[in-house]
Design brief:
By secondary structure, the protein is an alpha+beta fold. The chain is built from three helices and seven strands, in the order H-E-E-E-E-E-E-E-H-H. It has helices at 2-39, 125-130, 132-146; strands spanning 43-46, 50-55, 58-63, 73-78, 83-88, 96-102, 108-113. A seven-stranded antiparallel β-sheet has the order 1-2-3-4-5-6-7, with helices on one face. The radius of gyration is 21 Å and the shape is elongated. The N and C termini lie far apart (59 Å). The relative contact order is 0.10.
Length: 151
């Protein structure tokens, strides 16, 4: 009985350890391949994790995914931090977008949007409508910095 238990543990370890190693290698390769191009020209903020750049009245940032996560993000904000565009590059399919808008009372709204600036939740549709021009400029700045893959 003891021998069978030991054998099962050895078999499980022999199977799961290589799978775990392969998953780590896949994740690391994917993450480096996907995000290394985005950080070009930006300054390292948190070593190997986060990069920033202030350029032409806009703030750019790249945040690499956390360990074994496939979710990182790109950001473009106005230099006064009133409006920020956040882009979550997709592993498969379309990217996800969000904006943060600070109103005149310094209240910050985080709103999920689609590329056509339609809102996911209609509660803050007026904020998007009122800031549509600036949000489009942020999309344009993101495209200039990172290419068409962000759209």
């Amino acid at each position: 009985m003891k021998k069978n238990k030991k054998r099962i543990i050895i078999i499980l370890a022999t199977v799961f350890f290589p799978v775990f190693i392969l998953y780590n290698l896949f994740w690391y390769g994917w993450m480096k391949n996907k995000y290394t191009a985005y950080k070009e020209g930006l300054n390292e903020f948190v070593p190997n994790r986060s990069y920033v750049l202030s350029e032409s009245s806009y703030l750019y940032n790249v945040k690499f995914p956390n360990y074994l996560s496939f979710v990182g993000n790109l950001g473009v904000a106005t230099d006064d931090n009133k409006i920020a565009l956040i882009i979550w590059p997709s592993f498969f399919g379309e990217n996800t977008y969000g904006v943060q808008i600070k109103d005149e009372n310094d209240q910050v709204y985080s709103i999920m949007i689609k590329r056509d600036l339609s809102v996911v939740d209609n509660e803050n549709a007026d904020l998007i409508k009122n800031n549509k021009e600036q949000i489009e400029i942020l999309f344009k700045k993101a495209q200039e910095k990172w290419g068409d893959s962000v759209l």
